[in-house]
Amino acid sequence: MRLFSTWDFLHRGSYESVVEALITARSLDLGELSAGADSLHQPRLLTDLERAAGRLEQAIRDGEHVLIFGDYDVDGVVSTALVLDFLHQVDARCSCMLPDRHTDGYGIKPPAIARAAERGAQLIVTVDNGISASAAIASAVDAGIDVIVVDHHQQHGELPPAHSVINPNRTDCGYPFKGLAGVGVAFKLVQAVSEAFISGPERRTYLNGLLDLVALGTVADVAPVLGENRVLIRRGLEILRRTQRPGLRQLKAVAGCGDQPLDTMAIGFHLGPRINAAGRLTSPHLALDLLSTGDEEAAARIAAELDEINGRRRQLQNEGTKEAAALVQPDELARDRLLVVLGESWHLGIIGLLASNLSTRFHRPVVACTGTRDDGSYTGSARSIPAYDIGAGVDHCARHLTTYGGHPGAAGMTLPAESFEAFRADLIAHANAHIDPDALEPRLTVDLELQPRDMGAGTLDQLRQLEPFGRGNELPVFASMDCEVTSCRRIGRDQRHGKIGLATGGVRRQAVWWNNGDAIDELSRGQRVAAAYTLERDNFTGNGAVQLVLKDLYPLDREMRTPPAL
Ligand SMILES: [Mn+2]
């Protein structure tokens, strides 16, 4: 039942106020957390920004055909939609191109340049990609097409031969905040170029109205919720709530978050996956059409379609995760510090999700491979843990691979089917040699042991001061070290979730344990347990009552009834 062998407490013992204890425990800076518009940095601090803005301004004035080249994930699609929105706003000649995950793969490549040239493009703006597309950009130079790269990915090696490269993470860029998502960088470019075309309060209103897209991409890309991203997300969530975009209004409706105040979870769990599903299972252009259409009926139709595609994605992911987990043998877990699983028919669009689900479950890096390509070759997607650089691991196995790329946390590759076993053996050997066994111990970080009096709505209200939550400022995890189980049952379709009544210090709360209905079989009323959880309002069945969302739970031995004093 217990998921984490160790709970690491940031704070244990008494405290005055939950929020103050959290800020101290997390070494957060309250000034930074509550930063306002004045903490947004000037676009011009980005190297090459003025050069890029000048070129784009000239293209708009001269009526050149500007082609935006984006990506198939949420950040890539909203970045494209944002630049497109601006080009339409100033009546520029423009078109968009998004790569197909299945046939093109990530990033701009020479064949895309050829297609852009056929279309008559005179200036290409890459968004959320381009920093490592030297070959494609060289071919654009040959074809007489200028390229502006707008990206946020790390620079490896030489810069591409583009007209200009705007990227806070290019090694010579002194921009003070490195955590912008692709859409954040695109916003900075539009902010600068808009000065030449829109003025006064109208420009301010226009730029503000783009922040719904900025919040979507920044949260969905799991960019840090720190620095100026906090301002962009906080404002963007307000704009998103009353967005003028028919597509986003309809998407909120099908996702069941219509008129409620939105938080980062609404993007992460409801809106983001529906936008992403298009690129995973069909075409990302469907999602771009949703964000770009001004037509309410078209928006409703596309939103319904995305909802349906996302349902299919969820089903494929659930089935695939079950199949993949069943492939993992106990002796492998004892022996191998990295897992490579293969499902000949897993959908190419979901193998990254499978790798991620298995990595969470088995606390080690995972590569999920599928053989669904027409040419019989395999495609793999890898997700890692902080203790292992999977990009380096894949690099080490390059001799088995046709194409590959990645960074410390994730990687992707294609390989001939006959190389699979050798690749698998080599990568596992590399991981076994580089991962300390201690790093595979599942550990949960708990912010603080919550006093029973703080398990109510007042705490949720206070926590709003720390919003938005996300990477770098996670939703707080609390623990109660001595609870009595007052009820326990399975809930949900397939009975896959658990619902547990808990009482501690005279306070009773309902707790839900998502995807862990099996734990119910090991619990009984009257049992004493320790629980680690986040707090939320149950707007679904509980009329807004405060409920606990369990991260972990374990029975207390009789002698453990009183937690050891610190
Ligand atoms: Mn991105």
Write a structural description.
The protein is of the alpha/beta class and 566 residues long. The chain folds into 3 domains: 6-32 and 443-560, OB fold (Dihydrolipoamide Acetyltransferase, E2P) (Beta Barrel), CATH 2.40.50; 43-198, inorganic pyrophosphatase (n-terminal core); 328-440, Roll (Diaminopimelate Epimerase, Chain A, domain 1). The protein is built from 19 helices and 17 strands. It has helices at 18-25, 30-33, 49-62, 74-89, 110-119, 134-142, 182-194, 200-208, 211-220, 227-241, 246-254, 264-281, 284-292, 296-327, 330-335, 351-362, 390-396, 420-434, 457-463, and strands at 6-11, 65-69, 93-97, 123-127, 146-150, 164-166, 339-343, 366-370, 378-383, 403-406, 410-415, 443-449, 478-491, 497-504, 507-513, 528-538, 545-555. Helix 3 packs across helix 7, helix 7 (182-194) runs antiparallel to helix 9 and helix 11 (246-254) packs across helix 13 (284-292). The chain starts with 5 loop residues before the first strand and ends in an 11-residue tail after the last strand.
